[in-house]
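Here's what a typical entry looks like (Biosynthetic peptidoglycan transglycosylase):
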Amino acid sequence: MVEKNWQRVVFCFFFAVFALLLIFRFVPIPFSAYMVQQKIANLLQGDFRYQIQYDWVSLENISPNIQLAVISSEDQRFPEHLGFDFEAIQRAIRHNEKSNKGIRGASTISQQTAKNLMLWHGQNWLRKGLEVPATMLLELTWSKKRILEVYLNIAEFGNGIFGVEAASRYYFKKSAKNLSQNEAALLVAVLPNPIIYKVNKPSLLVRKKQAWILRQMGNLGTEYLSDL
């Protein structure tokens, strides 16, 4: 009986995910699961002034500079893989076995999009387990351009600042379509920890990562986006 109940729960979850992805294949995303998580967390902590800044924009209205910056930094094999970069996973495992300087992740843009949109943040096996099939369904139903578009719109770039449009207007007083290479690289340099690392108060580590991203952007070239 218990096993059947679990099977029913799992089936309902993935049916709901699949239906959600079909709906949002073309429709702008009104909010993400992570936005809801952050709002609730702040309310529970007594912060009733916490506000989410979020403005959806289409990929055509997002500068190619930040499209290339996020691929250069987060997932250079994004156009090629089917949701998971197994080479990056192997490198991360080898690094984590040898290093005491922190854990290196290997999540692709597709995985991060699935997590931010439908799941929750936190290091636990349940979330990781759900992330795998959610990512597979995402890759099955959406194009690479759509995945990148949604990722750039729901990624967090500061406390309550979600998406490149809100981030661009907050930090640079301009639309995301007008971001320069330096500005794009700086925004991406604070990922995936925009609460610890600040766009408006970049540390030496953030500046070094920004410079590295700019070099990677130069290596890939804007024509790399044509592969999406």
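The mean pLDDT is 90.

More examples are in the samples folder.
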